[in-house]
Amino acid sequence: MTYADPVEIARDAGKHTHHFHGGLRLRHNKRISCRVPVERPPLPDILVVPLLQHAGEAARPLVETGDRVRKGQQIGRCKAGVAVHAPTSGTVETVEDRLMTHASGMTGPCVVIRPDGKEQWVELEPINDVQNTHPDVLIKKLQESGLVGLGGAVFPTHIKARDGRERQIHTLILNGAECEPYISCDEMLMREQPDKIILGARILRHALGAERVIIAIEDRMGAVQEALTYAAECAECKRITVVKITKIYPEGGERQLVQVLTGLEVPYGGRPSDLGLLCQNVATAAAVAEAVTAGKPLIERYVTVTGNGIAQPRNLLALIGTPFSHLVKVCGGYSDNVARLVVGGPMMGYAVSTDATPVVKAVNCILALTQRDITTPQAEMPCIRCGECSRTCPAILLPQQLYKQIKNGWWDTVEEYGLAACIECGCCDFVCPSHIPLVSWFRYGKDELRQRAIAKQAADLARKRFEAREGRLLQKEHERAEKMARRKQMLKDKAKSKDRVNRANGNSADA
Ligand code: SF4
Ligand code: SF4
User: Of 1.10.1060, 2.40.30, 3.40.50, 1.10.155, which CATH number belongs to 375-511?
Assistant: First the structure.
């Protein structure tokens, strides 16, 4: 193995920082939500817990209307995905389809729980001796605890961990670079619970068999580096390094972060594990610590409730299933001129039509924007080929070309322009002087390709079934013809032998 091997180069991750292509320097607007410590809001009247909160198939409900549930009890389960748990004790009011907290605005199966206020836990099963526990047992525990990536992708943590272990990754990267404006929940978590993040990092390192851990934070995060470094020192863990990186959006993207820390690009269609790296969010690490050492499943998360449309912006430790309206009320309600509610940040978030939608594992921020924050939508004008979009694109794509392909419906060639590599960061949208809603076009393009792939799969399956049926019919026809031929032959043979017998009998009578 030579030093030019990318996996070897990636071993030096974090020693020097590098730059990625494009990106934007944005006003971060985070201070307004970091002024007060994180609090746990009072229990809401109702909790709406969706059975699909991770990337994959929905969980199957394990409870029905009228059932009593305890805090942390499994209420949904699926084979490959992660389990879903009751965020508190109470009674199941109903299991029905409700509006999902998702950009699509779709409905999906939810368990609606009325809390009883007793907060009665199920019996928890912590793992006390982590270092002497087999990694497979730890990974299974992550699945049963409903752990998903809390950075937004909600990919099941146990699948990523198993894959990382099989691929023998050497470095675990914990992503604390919260680059999107307004969102500050990870920063508050790192400030307030550095010990838990370090503990989670150690557990994950053991489960993955990784050599070391890098925690990447932004250089504007002040005391966070000291807090994490001190926590690592107290745990006598020398294999954890905290690295500060510059605050260029979207450096918190998995691929961009890998490039900043290693100078290497994750190959198109590849994953960081191709370089011996695995990325997890810092909040996921804290949830891992809770799941393994306390036996507590993922039933709550830090959520930033912020924006000029909120009276007292802050971070809250919210139960999964809490309606947004409850959290907004805890933050003093809306200001008079609130105009739009966004889930996530202003760059990658999506607007929701109601605040009755619940907090799910993917929700890191509820952003209420006022009329003043929202630029008046401008009419889309023709592309002038200025190239600004490709200059800012962190995925090194040609957004103007992608837009042309999608707009013209050239679906056979659009993938050649790397649509799948678009991380929907919104940089191209932000700089386009023609006000072309490029990201909306790209989301539409991805959706169309997905639908086409599904339709093609269904058509291929139908064709295979048709061909199989044709084959069966032909075979039957062939067998019937053979049978007929055999029968004819048999009759012929019979007639011949009868003839022979008759002739023999006739001859003997003559004699
Ligand atoms: S920034 Fe807008 S106008 Fe300029 S090339 Fe890109 S799509 Fe065209
Ligand atoms: S939204 Fe996609 S195409 Fe546009 S800048 Fe981001 S990665 Fe590039």
Answer: 1.10.1060
